[in-house]
């Protein structure tokens, strides 16, 4: 019986943690812009941000490779800036997890912002608050439960991503092998003990996330 390698768990937590910060930043900002903004292409922006939900993960990973591969302008710029390529690195795994989890955060936050009574915002404007303070001090606190639920879902999605991550970051043990990829590898190697342990950890995280989101939706947290 082989000992369980915990590197994939540590890497997954690192990748998911950083991806969640990125997702929360762009997801919440994008949700607010879509919910409160009135600009051309608003519907197209929301549709584009939601694509990772409906696209197969391998297709999403392929598009990311086209955008950030070593021969692509973005990938070439990253390599010149950092001295290493973005693909087949843990930073590439962060990118993949961020893109895959973004729509989960954005859609939940958008629904939360849509549910805020705009009369509170109008009252704040009448009181003389600038728009940015209305957003930060009125809208965001009132939508906080939904926003937190979206960020939590984004974290779970980033932690569990497989297809997009393996396309962009590869499957390099000790470097880019995250937990979902390690489960796949363990099954392929008939190491069912490691697969069961890692799958159990992922399942436990998923259950905790769902419970937290449910309690947030009911206003119990």
From TrEMBL:
PROSITE patterns: ABC_TM1
InterPro entries: MetI-like (IPR000515), MetI-like_sf (IPR035906), ModB_ABC (IPR011867)
Topology in membrane: Multi-pass membrane protein
Subcellular location: Cell membrane
Alphabetical list of Pfam families matching this protein: BPD_transp_1
Residue intervals of the ABC transmembrane type-1 domain: 9-213
Keywords: Cell membrane, Membrane, Molybdenum, Transmembrane, Transmembrane helix, Transport
Transmembrane residue ranges: 6-32, 44-68, 88-113, 134-156, 192-213
SUPFAM superfamilies (alphabetical): MetI-like (SSF161098)
Family matches, as Gene3D superfamilies: MetI-like
GO CC terms in record: plasma membrane
Domain of life: Bacteria
Molecular function GO terms recorded: molybdate ion transmembrane transporter activity
Family in the record: Belongs to the binding-protein-dependent transport system permease family. CysTW subfamily.
NCBIfam families, A to Z: modB_ABC (TIGR02141)
Record's function text: Part of the binding-protein-dependent transport system for molybdenum; probably responsible for the translocation of the substrate across the membrane.
Designated name of the protein: Molybdenum transport system permease
Organism, scientific name: Egibacter rhizosphaerae
């Amino acid at each position: 019986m082989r000992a369980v390698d915990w590197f994939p768990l540590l890497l997954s937590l690192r990748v998911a943690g950083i991806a969640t910060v990125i997702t929360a930043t762009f997801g919440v900002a994008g949700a607010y812009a879509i919910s409160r903004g009135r600009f051309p292409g608003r519907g197209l922006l929301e549709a584009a941000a939601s694509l990772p939900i409906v696209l197969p993960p391998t297709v999403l990973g392929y598009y990311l490779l086209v955008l950030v591969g070593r021969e692509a302008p973005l990938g070439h710029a990253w390599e010149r800036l950092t001295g290493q390529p973005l693909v087949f690195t843990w930073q590439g795994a962060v990118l993949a997890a961020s893109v895959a989890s973004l729509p989960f955060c954005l859609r939940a936050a958008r629904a939360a912002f849509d549910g805020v009574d705009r009369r509170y915002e109008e009252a704040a404007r009448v009181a003389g608050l600038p728009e940015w303070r209305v957003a930060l001090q009125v809208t965001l606190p009132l939508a906080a439960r939904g926003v937190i639920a979206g960020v939590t879902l984004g974290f779970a999605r980033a932690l569990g991503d497989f297809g997009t991550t393996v396309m962009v970051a590869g499957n390099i043990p000790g470097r880019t092998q995250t937990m979902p990829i390690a489960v796949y590898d363990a099954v392929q190697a008939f190491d069912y003990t490691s697969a069961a342990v890692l799958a159990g950890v992922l399942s436990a995280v998923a259950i905790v996330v769902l419970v937290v989101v449910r309690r947030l939706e009911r206003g119990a947290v």
